[in-house]
Request: fold
Amino acid sequence: MSTHWAEILLFVAVVAQVFCTIASTTSASRMMFAFSRDGAVPGHNLWKRVSKTDRIPIYTVWAIVVLAFVTPLPAWWYGYVGYAASTAVAVIGLYIAFMLPII
Reply:
């Protein structure tokens, strides 16, 4: 494969990651907003606020963005061990998220 095709493939992968990040942020912030409307999230009075101009839950979106940025930081600082810890935290969080509606 030539360098040109490798650059195109890399560009497609980066665009796909950007769209995946946007979709994940949108989904997570919508779920957090929905749970906070029902009072099921700690600090729900803050998270359920909606911007008057844009009509979006701006605090919820920013909370998800900050959480998504902070979660993989150990992987940057501690290499493989940090990556394993970040992945373990993510998996535990998924299990908790799946169990919460059942409880």
About this structure: The mean pLDDT is 89.
